[in-house]
Amino acid sequence: MNVADIRRSYIKDKLDLDKLNPDPFVQFEGWLKDAIAAELPDPTAMCVASVDADGQPSQRLVLLKDMSTAGFVFYTNLGSRKAQELAGNPKVCLHFPWHPLERQVIVYGTAERVPTSQVLHYFTSRPKESQLAAWASEQSRPVSTRLALMQKFAEIKHKFEHGEVPVPSFWGGFLVKPHKIEFWQGGEHRLHDRFMYSRQADGSWSIERLCP
Fold this sequence. Notes:
Belongs to the pyridoxamine 5'-phosphate oxidase family. The chain is α+β, with helices and mostly antiparallel strands and 212 residues long. It has helices at 24-37, 81-88, 116-125, 128-136, 146-159; strands at 45-51, 57-63, 66-68, 71-77, 91-98, 103-113, 171-185, 193-199, 205-210. A hairpin with a 2-residue loop joins strand 3 (66-68) and strand 4. Helix 4 packs across helix 5 (146-159).
């Protein structure tokens, strides 16, 4: 297979400065609504990139669970690799790959833990099976077989069969507070449209076009 020959043209849309909202969160919300309206699979899926103590980057897909002018929120096991890496180095990058719309959004920022009250509110809104899975999985840790994992899930399910599932002490969320947000729209002849929002000292945002 010759992957070098796999290519396509990007002709769906164009992005100009006068089409951008001066607030990147408003701009993002508009694009997210477009992704949802287009019925893209997992429109809230985002790649989270973190770096360990040795400088080794790692990435994984998680789901965006909240967004405001404060930033972007996701939840995870606090013993997971990403949570441990963010505890040591809070610098983080998010990537939203809306390929069918020929769009991408990249968020550069720092991560901080969300309040316990917010974690509780979200955890109790999850389906019970998802709550049980949070207890059953020691995320990122080795497990001998899938059968062992399912047996642990069955044990947890039996334990909480007749009551509410409490929030595990090892489960929480992160707020990614951005200082830069890039919006990318595919263009003809690989002349893509890229705009970078940068947060200024006074909290406002500047916008500049980048070469593709």
